[in-house]
Amino acid sequence: MTDAPSDHSSLHLLIGGEKVSGGSRKTQDVIDPATAEVLGSLPHATSDDLDTALANADKGFHSWRKESADKRAAALHKAAALLRERAGAIGELLTREQGKPQREAMGEVIYCAMLLEFYAGECKRAYGRTLVRPEGQSARVIYVPVGPIAGFAAWNFPAINVVRKVGGAIAAGCSVIVKPSEETPAAGLALVQALLDAGVPGDVCQVVFGVPDEVSRHLLGSPIIRKVTFTGSTAVGKHLVKLAADDLKVTTMELGGHAPVMVFKDSDVDTVLDTMVGAAYRNAGQVCVSPTRFLIEEDLFPAFRDGFVERTKAIKVGNGMEKDTQMGPMANERGPEGLAKKIADAKDKGAKLDTGGERIGNQGFFFEPTVLSEVPLDAEIMNEEPFGPIALLNPMANADAIVEEANRLPYGLAAYAWTNDPKLRSRLAAEVEAGMLAINGANVSAPDAPFGGVKWSGFGREDGEEGVMHCMVAKTIHES
Ligand code: NAD
Question: What is the CATH number of the domain that holds 125?
Fold first, then answer.
């Protein structure tokens, strides 16, 4: 049994179960966002590597789809147990390459184990149905795996984004080639290694890296791939959907958001703040479901802003490897640069900077937890996902204005609301345009709950039974 990788010194591709690196392959540095030091060197797949992975995926699919649900479930259960055993080591790799505090990194690996355990059960629950027909005839619907899948994952959740690409696929009986982010490769590699160590064949689950646009064009250009699944920005998602359209491949898109937090007048301000301030700065705000647009009924606004700023100033920022760190650096150089530009634009347009707003130090990619308030709607940051440690607080006249502003953007991933008014709660459930709505809480993700968005936040779902079903297609058998 191979142990989890312990550092970034031997990064590789995983093709046909083999660790592939070296030769004439190009490489790229992997950077520690807390220090900007080089952690390791990542090989890029050659065109031949990608063709080999595709041929393996084709072969792997034809054998894995015939395996019993019991066998697939056993492998997923075992992989989950290995992830639990290795959570400490994988969590360290994850913090080093991505920056989040150890506690969050370990939690991420444990979530991956929980998701694989849930999917193990779903292998056996991919029920079809029998249709009503006259005597002597029958018709039934069965679900069959869609085929080899190509998955592309982002750097903000180096393990969860990868497990969401491979877990449902493997449970459904598909093969999958996944490309984790080149910026955070080791946690994804460790996750797939656990699946291989648990008995998933090497041609069923493979890992490649390279120049993202070149890898996706190569894999999507092959008729072997029947589904594409992506986590990342809306712009790249639209590009991949267009590429997938040429061969009418199935797509699942988990794209950006800009989540409203609707705080209605019957809320207890301290309870909301105790829950939502931590959520706003989790993973330095680099979360597609980050609560970002706080829409607060105006009577509550002054106390809400004061309490928010006080709590924000108390957050301890530091290297994620240090025990008392509550918020780590942003994950890459683009983060602080992009956020500083958006803050400058909002201030020019009249927003108030209540705290933060600057890079911290001259080493690594640290940025102060920031609060902007009374932010005009024409500020860029009110329209584009900030993806950084920032909260935008705006006073709102009444409930109607809050719901209208919540739905104003083309995004619709997560939304949050705080109220105990039962009528308002059912109105929100019906009217808020989002894939997930949390009422009086900050959690929108659980292994048994479908995760995904509407409008420009994408389509298709990961997690929940949908995470497996979206890797399958219905086939109807008519018998006379
Ligand atoms: P991006 O969309 O360019 O990159 C996100 C991921 O997609 C990366 O891992 C990248 O390797 C991959 N990618 C990029 N182009 C690709 C292609 N042509 N084919 C396949 N994969 C490709 O985003 P970014 O520059 O890293 O971040 C920009 C913004 O994207 C962020 O500020 C945020 O708004 C959004 N984002 C959203 C999520 C999410 O969880 N939905 C994750 C990361 C970034």
Answer: 3.40.605.10
